[in-house]
């Protein structure tokens, strides 16, 4: 897909797309999408739940890199609160990145959560995927930037894969 075809569009961004970008693993289209977001040529949208997951996962990724942890990173970190405190800048940097991209962060409302069973029964999506899709439906969002294969079977949306 050409980036120009996405100009003026709203794109839901999933946790994995942010992570692939921040860790240098994403494709050219993802870079172009984020650049277009900065330039306000399109609008990037995400949820509070996705941001929470992004902060947590980037925290663990960076902890592994900085402290050389492999496996059970959270358990190892919890044994040394000083190491946890030293990683606060990881969260600050991720939030600064989100701010630079001018991402619209949607709060998850009670009615969205209570609609999850219907999303599960109709579309087979569970957990955060069900919440994300429900918000997309509520906001008439057609595009999602995600590597999550579960969204591929949903005819109402277009999946933009950050990896290929």
From TrEMBL:
<dbReference type="InterPro" id="IPR029060">
    <property type="entry name" value="PIN-like_dom_sf"/>
</dbReference>
<dbReference type="InterPro" id="IPR002716">
    <property type="entry name" value="PIN_dom"/>
</dbReference>
<dbReference type="Pfam" id="PF01850">
    <property type="entry name" value="PIN"/>
</dbReference>
<feature type="domain" description="PIN">
    <location>
        <begin position="11"/>
        <end position="155"/>
    </location>
</feature>
<protein>
    <recommendedName>
        <fullName>PIN domain-containing protein</fullName>
    </recommendedName>
</protein>
